[in-house]
Amino acid sequence: MPMRANPLWFRTTFLEKTAPERLDVTDDIWPFIRGFNEYDGLTTVVAATAMLPHLFNLFFQPFKCAATDTKVIGISPEDAGIVDPEKASELLHDLMAMAFYTPRFRKGFKIEIRTSPLAESWQLALLDEPTRGQGADSWKAVVTEGPEKYSGTQCTIPVYLSRSTEGILWRLSHKLGDRERILSDVRLGLRYRKVQGVRAYPFTITQSTWEYLRKGFEVRPGDVWATGYPCAGNTLIQMVVRTLRVGGDCDAVTQHGPQAMYASGISSTLEMDVSRGKVDLAYLSKLPESCRVFTSYHTPENMPCMPTAPVEGGDRPARLLPAGIKVVHLIRDPRDSCASLFGHTVNDTGCEWDLWVESFIEGSSMPWGGWLKQNLAWWAAHQRHPDQVLWLTFEEFKEQPQKAVRRVADFLGCELSESDLEELAKATEFEPMKRRLEGLPKLRSGGMTGQLKLFSKPQLHSFDVSVIQPALAVGMRFRDTGADPTMADDAKADDAKADDTKGSV
């Protein structure tokens, strides 16, 4: 307590005037208490609004200390720092009501719906958000098209979950961990779930989905996995591998029918489409060999195809990867990956650019463990099993597409004529690929190096020190698109100049 909080302050603040002059530690003071200051209630309102500056300013006008930048709400009875006490009280009431209210439905819950009571089939949907002003039972739900569509297109539809139609037009379908807690990184605006200790994004992917696949997924020789950190070019690899597996016909992989059955949409992961109900283990077991191409953002030890327990009696599996499978791992310059992932998520997160860059470099708050951690794990797998893990760079595909396609074809043992090779190489270019895949939202610019101009010199320097150099130190091979070589030196000079300035103050 501050020095001013003496016995006189306590009596004046909390006790009735009729209270005895002297009260001992054994005396009952409750008959003389006249009230309490709402410190806890005020703290709740401040905490709830401080995360959103524009909302905080609607309720509070704090005093800011010029020396320390500390903000203080209420420096005197005359200057309480509260804009509208009645609105603040109303917000506190709403927060308490929300805390004690247990809703029947929550974001991320799975339901099954059908168009009429006579329809035989039910379709799985994911509750996204309540429909404002339409009542507690009115929601927006996300429906994913089934496996017959290569793209895994989603659409949002309104649903009214009234009790009178429950079991007739809709029913709850708690599958694959839909009741697992959705977490939120307030700083980044990122909503995610924890899967094997890492942040799984989007939040639809659950720990139960991972366990479901690890226990029931049937690994077969010839399975091909496309891996890489998000926005490394995973759709590109899927396109190339799928085309090679069907004899070089680029159009065949986007057509419907038994020869275009795939485990996931061409721009999504296996875990994502299983968690959305697009496919299940029974469907995966029926896939023909040419269509067994999977995508995952996990590190090798957490791949769905890994055994559920150590083999040969040891603490570590004898092989890092199951025998007979092939992995094509694509890596992209971390700065381009950072900018591309920001572009894909900013509409959902609202995160500021500088904070995003800082967090991407640090890594631990990023999805899937961060760029460095994920690629270090796959580099170790490539070193251990070079016959099973092909290491490619996104920049190779952009600069020498024919050579890159040939490397993938040779790695998978696929025969490809020169004419088919040339056609597939052209198909991997951004514009033809975007036309063929009907403008999937995941395809943004498909370029490289141009995004470096988005970064400041200190940010490029931080990337070099904290991400690029640690990767190069273990021998990791990737194409450093690089800024102007003088940029890093200029950033170091700026840092040194700043340090000198601090020392002279």
Automatic annotation (TrEMBL):
Transferase keyword on record: yes
Pfam family, one: Sulfotransfer_1
InterPro entries according to UniProt: P-loop_NTPase, Ribo_hydro-like, Sulfotransferase_dom
One Gene Ontology MF term: hydrolase activity, hydrolyzing N-glycosyl compounds
Alphabetical keyword list: Transferase
Transmembrane stretches, start-end: none
Domain of life: Eukaryota
Domain Sulfotransferase, chain residue ranges per copy: 222-435
Positions of the UniProt region annotated as Disordered: 483-505
Gene3D superfamilies, per database record: P-loop containing nucleotide triphosphate hydrolases, Ribonucleoside hydrolase-like
Basic and acidic residues bias locations: 489-505
Family per record: Belongs to the sulfotransferase 1 family.
Protein name: Sulfotransferase domain-containing protein
